[in-house]
Design goal:
Layout: H1 25-37, E1 59-71, E2 78-100, H2 109-116, E3 117-138, E4 142-158, E5 163-176, E6 186-196, E7 202-212, E8 215-228, E9 232-238, E10 241-247, E11 252-269, E12 272-290, E13 295-312, E14 318-323, E15 326-336, H3 341-349
Antiparallel strand pairs: 1-2, 1-15, 2-3, 3-4, 4-5, 5-6, 6-7, 7-8, 8-9, 9-10, 10-11, 11-12, 12-13, 13-14, 13-15
């Protein structure tokens, strides 16, 4: 099977006019929902909720992942994915002030004392992301190179009821080399609140919105961490991930769970640009180790029991191509710099 860019081999995967399905209707529906979820900016990564505050800290983040070749379920040929991504987050605005309001009201002395404390805290950061993805598809190892880039902002602020309001917004593009001149920008936004319930017990909720080349969806989410003994914790970000965490030491943490993964990119098909979509279910185990206050290393291995690619054929009909179960491996590094207002809020309120 030859994975062609356009016209050529009539039996090429990109030109087949028959519909390939995953199997049962419930499975197809599940994968459609999964595809929608992975369009959100946070779903293509693993969440470590015990380090939620690190997201809002100035940093340089570099990740590389390899998904070895695996054959298609109903078609000849294999699918392989190699990706490198870098993210830079820098502070733009930061405010911190504390004081006492002697005129605060309340039903009792304790409530008046609590209401009298005035902490005003907020931070805005800018981020930029660049990445390159190399897909090897088909029996002849046809190489397709995708480029991604995004710019945006994120921020946090403390409300009067000691809730943390957080938000992010970014514009991104992802295109194959041959479709860069036809790039279509996409928008992702998130807004939510973070409740401070304790050093290890957390809850957040909100709404994520994606405007992605004709697919416009708002999706509510809820997440949190519940301690299980001194070292274990249950972690969830619904509807995209559930897992458990284990704290070996202050420097080393493990996490395992099940979650969604995927990406969407412009793709060349002859002279036309189409949307290439990949969605998968991941069962993962990872480790994070802090070398110092500024350097953190990460490694992960994941099984991929269910996955597929989706894109229109030459007639414009959306086709699905399931891929056999496989695995992926990922390594990465965080270099932190600057101060995190969210970390300071947590230290102060707790």
């Amino acid at each position: 099977m030859k994975m062609a860019n356009g016209a050529g081999d009539p039996d090429a995967l990109f030109q087949r006019e028959q519909t390939w399905t995953i199997g049962s209707a419930p499975m197809r529906s599940s994968m459609v929902v999964l595809f929608v979820l992975v369009l959100l900016p946070a779903t293509a990564q693993t969440f470590d909720l015990e380090q939620f505050e690190q997201i809002f800290r100035p940093r340089l983040k570099v990740d590389t992942r390899w998904t070895p070749p695996a054959s298609f379920t109903d078609q000849e040929g294999t699918f392989e994915d190699r990706v490198v991504v870098g993210v830079l987050t820098v502070p733009v605005y930061q405010r911190w002030s504390a004081g006492i309001d002697l005129n605060a009201e309340g039903k009792g002395v304790v409530e008046r004392l609590k209401n009298s404390v005035r902490i005003r805290a907020s931070q805005v950061l800018a981020n930029g992301r660049v990445g390159i993805r190399e897909l090897r598809i088909g029996s002849d190892g046809d190489v397709r190179t995708l480029y991604t880039g995004s710019v945006g902002a994120l921020g946090v602020s403390l409300t009067r009821k000691f809730r943390v309001l957080f938000w992010s917004a970014n514009v991104n593009v992802s295109e194959e080399e041959s479709t860069v001149d036809q790039m279509v920008p996409r928008f992702n936004g998130v807004i939510g609140k973070f409740r401070i319930n304790g050093a290890r017990k957390q809850l957040f909720y909100g709404l994520a919105v994606t405007l992605s080349d004709g697919l416009n969806l708002p999706i509510p989410f809820v997440g949190g961490t519940e301690p299980i003994g001194d070292r274990w914790s249950f972690q969830y970000v619904l509807p995209v991930q559930v897992g458990v965490g284990f704290k070996l030491s202050d420097e080393t943490r493990f996490q395992g769970g099940v979650g969604a993964d995927g990406f969407r990119s412009g793709f060349g098909q002859g002279d036309d640009r189409v949307n290439f979509n990949y969605a998968a279910v991941r069962a993962f185990v990872n480790v994070r180790h802090r070398l110092s206050r500024t350097v953190q290393l990460r490694a992960e291995i994941a099984g991929l029991p269910v996955r597929q690619i989706r894109f229109p054929d030459t007639a414009g009909d959306l086709q699905r191509y399931p891929i056999n179960a496989g695995w992926s491996v990922q390594v990465g590094m965080n270099i932190f710099f600057g101060n995190s207002t969210l970390e300071r809020i947590l230290d102060t309120v707790l």
